[in-house]
Write a structure and sequence with these properties.
two-stranded antiparallel sheet, 5 helices, 5 strands
């Protein structure tokens, strides 16, 4: 009986281990911890051509200012809480690993949409996560859609 109980315990432990295993995030074959430790020169080699060109030409004053504000917000945040939102109009800013975990308010032309930066967003532009238009809702009639909507009674 003891062998049978041991076997059941091992099977239960293996099943629990399988249920809890999460897929590790990697960006182009490099895991998250290593990605955070990369120098900017090594990061340039990983990103797509347009981002590579942008980084080689140097980060200007505004993108560097945004990164500094994000660093400051992360430092001032208490241990396990999210940092304060940093608002920006820089929709063309490329997301770098240093920004992961920050909360950014991205302007869409009308309001600032709050976006939490996740590891999957590295290499994308901030503007991709703040839609600038309201998607069309087909099949719903609006004003002036039919002939009957033209008729307005003259009291």
């Amino acid at each position: 009986m003891s062998d049978h109980e041991d076997n059941d315990a091992q099977l239960a432990a293996e099943a629990k281990k399988k249920a809890r295993s999460f897929r590790k995030f990697s960006y182009r074959g490099i895991e998250l911890e290593q990605l955070l430790d990369l120098s900017s020169e090594n990061l340039i080699d990983l990103v797509h051509a347009r981002a590579r060109r942008r980084f080689q030409r140097g980060l200007k004053r505004k993108p560097m200012g945004l990164i500094k504000k994000l660093r400051k917000a992360k430092q001032e945040a208490p241990g396990s809480e999210k940092p304060a939102t940093v608002k920006t109009h820089l929709r063309d800013m490329i997301i770098v690993p240093e920004m992961i975990g920050s909360v950014v308010g991205i302007y869409n032309g009308k309001v600032f949409n709050q976006v939490e930066i996740k590891p999957e967003m590295v290499g994308h532009y901030l503007g991709e996560f703040s839609i600038t238009y309201k998607p069309v809702r087909h099949g719903r009639p609006g004003i002036g859609a039919t002939h009957s909507s033209r008729f307005i009674p003259l009291k």
